[in-house]
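> tool_call: predict_assembly(chains=two)
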Amino acid sequence: MEILQEYWPFLLPLILAQLVLLITALMHVLKHQNYRFGSRTLWIIVVVFFQILGPVAYFVFGRGEDG
Amino acid sequence: MNHYIVFVKKELLEYARTYKLLVMTVVFVIFGITNPLIAKLTPELISSFVPEGMTITIPEPSALDAWAQFFKNSQQVGLIVLVLVFSGVLSSEVAKGTLINLLTKGLSRQAVILAKYSAMALVWSWSVVISALLTWVYTVYLFPVDPLSNLVFSIFCLWLFGGFLLAVLLLGATLVRSNYGSLLVTGAGVLILTVLNVIPQAGKYNPTALVTKSMDLVAGTIGLPPLYASLGITAAATLALIGLAVLVFSKKQL
């Protein structure tokens, strides 16, 4: 807990940034049917369990065309 | 000119809509925050892994370590994310056929390429600036003031190298139809440049000098003049690559 108290000015924005990325990616996965590859289950797992990299990978590789 | 500005705006909107802006911003914000933090915590982490009874001396981390993290992260993962995010810059629109409509309505092909490059460069500039600012703020917060030299110049070199990569990427996108073609061209370009460093005298002129010498610059072991040649060549090459991309794209069958 000590480290939390000392470094909260770092950890808070970090966690926020991660959450923003995670939530936008998750919403996108859930709202869309088409992915460039992979299934909805795969992308949910990737987005939720791989911090930062998961959502980035989804937006770069997995996101299908809108529509 | 008018077309150009309209198309830059359209591109930026598109980047916001396709989450490119979000990905770049969040990744570089996270870098900005973690750079000083990692520099600060690394000695503590190492000492917590050292077995009882063994003593190792770890030098006290300094602002220099935080900036070393900044350059390492932006030059490796940062540039990779940049190139990946923009890899489909032209191919997706060509594949969907949305560009043809605009072009037949009188939008010039030159404007398309220039606007695309400008919009990408804007996003890249924004990412570098926000990451550098955050690193700076948190470094000042965590570390005693350290004499750093040429910091802004070194960041400028990093920025210019990113701009150069974007020009390679854009030319790649005009040459190759597929989404991953531009990536391949950029990867090959970087590989060739890296291999060229084997030639003893080439290093000085190589664009890669802009990103390999960053910490020497900041630590003050070298001054600005050794980088002038590389700077000039990178700037000229970037312009030439954009020009070439315009040429290739105007001759291209869509």
